[in-house]
Amino acid sequence: MAFEGELGAKPKPDMFEGTTRESWEGSLPYTLYGGGDCAHSTSTGTATTTAIKVIAPGTFCESDIFMIPDPTPVYSKMEFTLCGFPGSGVLPDAIYAKAYNCASSDCSDCDESPEFFGYITKSSITAAYESADACFGWTTQSSSSNNSIAAVFDSYQNQRFNADIATLEEIQAYWGVVIDNSCVGPYMEESRSSAALVS
Questions:
Q1: pLDDT by residue (tens digit) across 172-186?
Q2: pLDDT: which is higher, 152 or 83
Q3: In whole angstroms, what is the distance from residue 142 CA to residue 157 CA?
Q4: What b/e string do you get for 22-52 counting C-beta neighbours within 10 Å, with b at 16 or more?
Q5: At 123, is the pLDDT very low, low, confident or very high (cuts 50, 70, 90)?
Q6: Which 3-state string (H, E, C) describes the chain?
Q7: φ and ψ at 185, to 5 degrees?
Q8: Fewer CB within 10 A of the terminal residue: the chain, N end or C end?
């Protein structure tokens, strides 16, 4: 995304600008890392997100191409189940989601049990939205058999888009689908409003 003095000084869009986006298609290559920050972690793989669309409120169908080692299409159903959980004993600023492996590109044929159940913090989503080369990630349960919010989350996976190819505008369009069509948008807006009142 261009700022003052760059490519016509296009203004940076607001995360909560009110538009409703229900799908995105493009090319967002990224690298996966283990625990720790991306700069000091070993890469565990590379992939490219090519599409995301709403299939129900808070539920999305995502298409990726993983290099394992040859290009392999992977389809995932993502369910954003809970945004913030104050007073519960778990992280109050966490956004929880489940991901299911799917056999079809429209996510109409998916596994009954999720591949993972985990959370991403609102600060991670904010960083990923505002910077093309941000390192962000999920903390998940090491086993998908429990899928209880009270269980231990002890597995980590970080991700960073390839900023040489993935533009901030494309990244924001991808995240915009999630923000506009799940609990993520209202939760982030509520958090931002609360912070403004405190300051």
A1: 999 999 999 999 998
A2: 83
A3: 11
A4: eebebebbbbbbeeeebeebeeeeebbbbbb
A5: confident
A6: CCCCCCCCCCCCCCCCCCCCCCEEEEEEEEEEECCCCHHHCCEEEEEEEEEEEEEECCEEEEEEEEECCCEEEEEEEEEEEEECCCCCCCCCCEEEEEEEEECCCCCCCECCCCCEEEEEEHHHHHHHHHCCCCEEEEEECCCCCCCCCCCCCCEEEEEEECCCCCCHHHHHHHHHHHHHCCCHHHHHHHHHHHHHHHC
A7: -60, -55
A8: C
- The model carries a pTM of 0.80
Token duo for residue 136: 């962000």
pLDDT tens for each residue of 128-154: 999 999 999 888 875 544 555 555 556
C-alpha R_g of the chain: 17
The fraction of the chain above a pLDDT of 70, given in percent, is: 74
Residue 169 has pLDDT above 60, yes or no: yes
Which residues face 46 on adjacent strands? 31
CA distance linking residue 174 with residue 186, whole number of Å: 17
Q: How far apart are CA 29 and CA 171, in angstroms?
A: 10
Of 92, 156, 166, 159, the C-alpha closest to 127 is 159
